[in-house]
Amino acid sequence: MADTIYFLIKTEPSAYSIDDLKRDKTTSWGGVRNYQARNVLRSMKKGDTCFVYHSSCDVPAVVGEAIVTKEAYPDPLQFDKQSEYYDAGSPQATPRWSAIELKFVQKYKQPLSLTDMKKIPTLATMRLLQRGNRLSVFPVEMRHALFLQKRTTRDSA
DNA sequence: GCCAACGTTGGC
DNA sequence: GCCAACGTTGGC
């Protein structure tokens, strides 16, 4: 798929894991409260592939893949007073925050850990590995994406 | 518009 | 729990 665009999305498995996505099959991916990350969300197109990354856990790793099934729409959580993502300052007419819909694609049998990724020269320039990277959603370059897919396919074969 | 203080992310 | 790296806030 030559024109597939790739992204990486971080999630804390204690909050929402790849297993949760597998169970739900599709989910509204919201709660992003950073303008840079929001802008990335808004750039995502239907059919784009997302690598799912588990952060803030025992073994931070790329654990699977999802696909975008609905492009950016107003994140419902920003208007939900019960939600920790409620934003009283977000105007109803021009909502501040966006969400996308993701569909589960696969959970890797062999996740690719952050530790291992650091040992791979091809991935050295990947955004995930740059110091100070804190964005929860960002694009993945084609060469990095192809490497990840090849690697994880081989490892799970 | 500058910048210090503060808060958050996330690996270790 | 520590700490580096940023983003945000708010006084001036």
Structure description:
This protein has one domain: Roll (ph1033 like fold), CATH 3.10.590. The protein contains four helices and six strands, in the order βαβαβββαβα. It has helices at residues 18-24, 35-43, 114-117, 142-156, and strands at 6-11, 26-29, 49-54, 61-74, 98-113, 137-140. It is globular. It starts with 5 loop residues before the first strand and ends with a helix. The mean pLDDT is 92. The protein binds a DNA duplex (12 and 12 nucleotides) through loops.
Rg over CA atoms: 16 Å
- Strand line-up in the sheet with most strands: 2-5-4-3-1-6
Structural class of the helix and strand makeup?
A: alpha+beta
CATH class: Alpha Beta
**CATH fold node name:** ph1033 like fold
Nearest-integer average pLDDT: 92
Order of helices and strands: EHEHEEEHEH
Q: Do you know the CATH architecture?
A: Roll
Low-pLDDT stretches: none
Q: Name the CATH superfamily assignment.
A: ph1033 like domains
- Spatial separation of the terminal alpha carbons: 21 Å
For the sheet with most strands, the description reads: 6 strands, mixed
Count of helix runs: 4
Q: What is the number of domains?
A: 1
Percent of residues in helical segments?
A: 10-25%
